[in-house]
Design a protein that fits this description.
There is one protein chain. Strand 9, helix 8 and strand 10 form a beta-alpha-beta unit. The protein has about 500 residues and is α/β, with parallel strands linked by helices. It is elongated. About 35% of the residues lie in helices and about 20% in strands. Strands 7-6-5-4-3-2-1-8 form an eight-stranded parallel β-sheet. The chain has a six-stranded mixed β-sheet with strand order 10-9-11-13-14-12, sandwiched between helices. A six-stranded parallel β-sheet has the order 17-16-15-18-19-20, sandwiched between helices. The longest helix is centred in the C-terminal third of the chain and has 16 residues. It folds into three domains: about 220 residues, TIM Barrel (Alpha-Beta Barrel), CATH 3.20.20; about 80 residues, Leucine Dehydrogenase, chain A, domain 1 (Rossmann fold, 3-Layer(aba) Sandwich), CATH 3.40.50; about 130 residues, Rossmann fold (3-Layer(aba) Sandwich), CATH 3.40.50.720.
């Protein structure tokens, strides 16, 4: 018998009554059980208008998050009491009272028929013993305890999961922020959490209050399927990834009740812990990005032909106790190279790859498969020589670059603002060249600018991203997304960056 579904509370970024009423309806439509009104986001003159929230289509939680605990509200006790008493006068289902500032108001709230959330946003350096005491502290007479802790994946697994226990009715709402936040919310049911906090629906453009929150419609669909699988994209960094959006589009169209989240793993030890823990906690697969593609290869129990060709893996599947590795980057690049030839946009003769990481290796393997003359350029000549020998291609010389009809930018340059490419890209380009970039969310236009200055054609990495996602989706669900939805996702990624 599966654990009961936690209540979903949507935190609203609204800053006035009118916006809050609109967002409450969005949250209700998305599947929320409660809506959280963040009074600390409201200007002081708006607090007197709380009555305008009622009647409400959802039960409401009033929260006045202090600056000391990451919000925009006052830290001063008397200023807080004035605003919270205005909330007591309205029919909120719960009023959030911070343990460090508002506990003296609990009796007053209860005397007025208000249930309370006794909350604390704890510092990352809190000792494990102190955290255990907080978790085991009993709830208010009429209410619930909410604790929020910044946590890496390792800390969440090793320190926080063991603290979750005891009768379900007395468990706190224990949530994490930071790298472990999305995965912790995905585990909300199996951890037996009474509540889980979510963002507005996916289609909303009004943002989220907490980056770790999952859109309510994604979370509601997942929690409606007790045995729905979980997937993640893992890397460092990974918060920028569009993979969750892409996979959720296809899962929704396919009627699948899964969930796809991001998971930032900042060390090899965290990666190894993740693949040890995740399969037994509902995860079916991972997409792996920089810098863990080689480690994914090493940790796998079985490897596809594409993985053996490249020496890296970007897709792991957990199957019957095994870890199966695949390389959907290679398949994505191969698909695109064949398309470009068929469309007459590339003559299929020469290809130059910039970089020596996982994306470069996948590109070289694809180039070998289509039979073109490939050259690899890296910052260190020795790396290029080693790759050239491994793949049977040519090692380029940065001091004597040779123009090519297709150049593939396979480094991370462009992902961060202010970066530059320490390779002679401009000398490789001509007006007849096509410059294809693996980066799809560039914060720096240095690569696109080089193509423009040379009169060359530039293609960002949106199509490669979606193609490799489609390969992963087929691997996990046994069906491929239709062509129309693939093209729609490509356009969505491009519009979002």
């Amino acid at each position: 018998m599966s654990a009961p579904r936690p209540a979903i509370v949507v935190s609203l970024p609204a800053r006035n009554v009118a916006a809050a009423r609109r967002q409450i309806e969005e949250a209700r439509t998305g599947g929320a059980d409660f809506a959280e009104i963040r009074l600390d986001l409201w200007p002081s003159e708006a607090h007197g208008g709380m009555a305008g929230l009622f009647p409400s289509p959802l039960p409401l939680l009033a929260t006045l998050r202090s600056r000391a605990e990451g919000g925009e509200g006052p830290d001063d006790d008397s200023a807080r009491a004035r605003i919270l008493r205005l909330a007591f006068a309205e029919p909120f289902s719960y009023v959030d009272l911070e343990l460090a500032r508002d506990r003296r108001l609990e009796g007053e709230a209860e005397s007025l028929g208000r249930s309370v959330v006794r909350s604390a946003h704890l510092p990352s350096q809190i000792a494990e013993t102190e955290l255990a005491l907080r978790v085991r502290e009993g709830p208010p007479k009429h209410g619930i305890v909410k604790l929020v802790v910044p946590a890496t994946f390792s800390r969440a697994v090793r320190e926080l999961v063991p603290l979750i226990g005891g009768p379900a009715g007395s468990r706190p709402v224990l949530l994490t922020t930071g790298a472990s936040g999305p995965v912790w919310r995905a585990w909300s049911r199996i951890l037996g959490l009474p509540w889980v906090f979510a963002a507005l629906p996916e289609a909303s453009r009004e943002g989220s209050v907490e980056p770790a929150q999952i859109p309510v419609d994604r979370l509601a669909r997942f929690l409606a399927h007790p045995d729905g699988p979980v997937f993640a994209v893992v890397g460092h960094p990974v918060a920028h990834s569009r993979s969750p959006t892409i996979h959720h589009v296809w899962m929704t169209r396919g009627g699948h009740g899964g969930l796809y989240v991001t998971l930032d793993l900042d060390s090899p030890e965290e990666f190894r812990l993740a693949i040890e823990v995740l399969p037994s906690r509902g995860f079916r697969g991972l997409n792996v990005t920089h810098p863990w593609k080689r480690l994914a290869y090493e940790c796998a129990g079985s490897r596809s032909a594409e993985v053996l060709e490249t020496g890296v893996a970007n897709c792991l599947t957990f199957q019957d106790g095994r870890i199966e590795a695949d390389n959907t980057d290679l398949r994505a690049m191969l698909r695109r190279l064949i398309e470009l030839k068929e469309l007459g946009r590339w003559d299929g003769g020469t290809l130059t790859v910039l970089g020596g990481g996982g994306a470069a290796r996948s590109t070289l393997a694809a180039a070998v498969r289509v039979g073109c003359q490939a050259t690899v350029l890296t910052r260190r000549r020795s790396d290029a020589v080693a790759l050239a020998a491994e793949f049977g291609v040519r090692a380029g010389n940065p001091r004597d670059p040779v123009p090519a009809s297709l150049i593939v930018q396979a480094t991370d340059v462009g992902r961060k603002a202010g970066e530059s490419l320490d390779l002679p890209l401009q000398s490789l380009l001509s007006p007849e060249s096509l410059l294809m970039d693996w980066v799809y969310d560039a914060q720096s236009t240095v690569i696109a600018d080089a193509a423009r200055e040379a009169g060359a054609t530039y293609e960002d990495g949106s199509r490669l991203l979606v193609y490799q996602a489609a390969e992963s989706y087929q691997r996990w669900w046994g069906e491929s997304p239709d062509a129309a939805s693939v093209e729609a996702c490509i356009q969505e990624v491009r519009c979002a960056v």
